[in-house]
Amino acid sequence: MARLNYVELPVRNVPGQKEFYEATFGWSFSDFGPDYASTMTGDVDMGLNGDAAQWTAQMLPVIQVDDLEETLARVQAAGGVVTLPIFAFPGGRRFHFRDPHGHELAAMVAYGEGV
């Protein structure tokens, strides 16, 4: 069965975006030249593409977390902006935020996992 295995975000500031995601979620990135970095988990990974000639339209990545309120606080402390406060949906609870580049993402907890 097909599954999401990579999300690539166009960014103006690769080092700044790396700092945001490292501070918020504890992710580590590998650099592939001055304009590209990627997580290397072997699961669903995320790339940060700093080459404007390769940018595409963005999608809404949803990041599953263990503690939604703690993640909300960490997003704000790292410079993210909440665009949709915590709300319930059929599978759990989530909120939306913009990272320092302006990408909109969501963080969620599933019912039965901290909800």
Describe the structure.
There is one protein chain. This protein has helices at 14-25, 68-77; strands spanning 6-10, 30-31, 36-38, 45-49, 62-64, 81-89, 92-98, 104-110. It has 115 residues and is an alpha/beta fold. A four-stranded mixed β-sheet has the order 1-4-3-2, with helices on one face. Strands 5-8-7-6 form a four-stranded mixed β-sheet, with helices on one face. The protein starts with 5 loop residues before the first strand and ends in a 5-residue tail after the last strand.
Low-pLDDT ranges = none
Radius of gyration over C-alpha positions, nearest whole angstrom: 14 Å
Q: Biggest sheet: strands side by side, in what order?
A: 1-4-3-2
- Tally of alpha and pi helices: 2
The helix content is 10-25%
Helix and strand composition category: alpha/beta
DSSP summary, beta strand count: 8
Give a quick account of the main beta sheet: strands, pairing sense, barrel closure: 4 strands, mixed
N-C termini distance: 28 Å
Average pLDDT level: 89
What percentage of amino acids are in beta strands? 35-45%
Give helix and strand order, one letter per element, not per position: EHEEEEHEEE
Query: Overall 3D geometry?
Result: globular
Sum this structure up briefly.
The protein is an alpha/beta fold and 115 residues long. The chain contains two helices and eight strands, in the order βαββββαβββ. It is globular and about 40 Å long.
